[in-house]
Amino acid sequence: MEYLNFSTITASLIGAGTAYAFLKNKTNSSNNNSCGSIEFPTNVLNRWNNLNNGYSWEMFLEEIKEIPDPSKFKSHIDNCLLLKQSGNHYESLVQFIKILTTIEKLKSNKNLYYITINDYINENKEISVLMKESIQLKDLMNAFFSEDGWINEKELAGDDESVTYSYRRNGRQLKARKFIKVIDKPIKNVLLRVEELQLFNTWKWYQNVTRLDDYKGTKLVSVISVLSRFILFNRAAYCWTLSYTLPDGSVIVAANGANNRQSDYELPPLPKQFSHPDIFFHAWRFIPLSPTKTIVVSVMESDPKIWFLPFEGFLAQGRIFGARELVLLDQHSTYIKGTEYEDCLEKNPLYKKVDKILFEKFNK
Q: Dihedral (C-alpha) 172, 58, 183, 346: value to the nearest 10 degrees?
């Protein structure tokens, strides 16, 4: 299995000077911006949701209701494992969240049978890993679809003043961040740039991603991010990835943190010359607004472990890097033909699903 080797680190370091020079002097330009003629992406998204029965937090909660008979939890868990092994990782996690909902229901009713279920989960490593992944997925879906706790900035962010920025906080701690941008490109143009993580550095030059061997149905990657000349700002991480479509025709690509769970996937230690942030999730949702226009929603939550940076600093840096990512995605997704991404179209079945979604939406 190929992990974080010297060549990967070297390739990432090549872009350090460029990335640092480009980003170090960025300030929060949104303070003095007006939206001008650009419609707020949040408004575009809300209108699309209303017209297309957009997926919602309430729909997700309906999907993860408790199982009817808690005594049959073992057979339900076995089915989750089979789904994961057959390549249906997202569905396996949704079904497992039903077990978590069942446990919560039993606890709220003071039914001690939840202890039996918990013990069974914790006694089996493969099932325990599935539980942890399910918790991460639920948190991720909450960030995308629950409206609770979000603080929305009133001005547009990004170099081209086209990105909406919102965040959740816990006291003085910055929690999840959300960015929305409407990109005048077909969905596959932008989806390819994120789904094919191993090619990330073709447009996000300060980040190098290496695909690792799958581990019992979980897709794994290593990530090297070189953001500054200072070691504390340069990061190494392991993530597990997930890509799936929703009933409304949108597509989600997610990278979920595995830094604090390396033993779950038998991963070696991370290199010491980088900081090791706790990445909870970093995910993108792609919504085909038309055959040539896409709404992109990005959510992320992490603990960068930069202890000396105050809340205001995290808020500003979060705005800069998150908005800049979507601007870069826009700038570097004009073409598929003649690029490294062209060959990927036939290798990944996700793009066939997208073709079907596009046909059903725009060829009625």
A: 120
Question: Per-residue DSSP letters for 33-99?
Answer: ---TTPPPHHHHHHHHHHHHT---HHHHHHHTPPPS-GGGHHHHHHHHHHHHHTT-HHHHHHHHHHH
What would the two tokens of residue 294 be? 């896409």
Q: What is the DSSP letter of 248?
A: T
pLDDT in tens, 214-226: 999 999 999 887 7
Cα separation of 233 and 111, whole Å? Answer: 47
Distance CA 252, CA 49 (A): 16
The structure tokens 């992320």 sit at: 300
215 neighbors 222 (Cβ within 8 angstroms): no
What phi, psi does 131 have (nearest 5°)? -65, -45
pLDDT in tens, 68-126: 999 999 999 999 999 999 999 999 999 999 999 999 999 999 999 999 999 999 999 99
Residue whose C-alpha is closest to residue 358's, from 285, 294, 283: 294
As a whole number of angstroms, the distance between CA 296 and CA 190 comes to 9
Mean pLDDT, the chain, integer: 86
What amino acid occupies position 177? Answer: R
- 77 CB contacts (<8 Å, ≥6 apart)? 96, 99, 120, 121, 127, 130
Q: Are 131 and 46 in contact (CB under 8 A)?
A: no
Residue with tokens 């970093």: 282
Q: What is the SS3 assignment for 219?
A: strand
Distance CA 200, CA 341 (A): 11
Residues 249-294: pLDDT tens digits? 999 999 999 988 899 999 998 877 777 667 789 999 999 999 999 9
List, for residues 231-252, the tens digit of each pLDDT value: 555 778 899 999 999 999 999 9
Residue linked to tokens 């297309």: 52
